[in-house]
Amino acid sequence: xxxxxxxxxxxxxxxxxxxxxxxxxxxxxxxxxxxxxxxxxxxxxxxxxxxxxxxxxxxxxxxxxxxxxxxxxx
Length: 74
Hints:
Layout: H1 3-37, H2 45-73
Helix pairs in contact: 1-2
């Protein structure tokens, strides 16, 4: 398989895993805070921004991995 494609696929997998794990951790913190304060579980502004920044980073990962694989093994 072409190293660029392989790097992009690996980067995509890492990005998806990162987004899923970050969402689970943020969701857990939101639920704990809601239970502690006896109110509905909602993401606040900080958590939404954190999730958005992780999403943007995950979109760049496949490009970065593809470039790195091309540079190293291409």
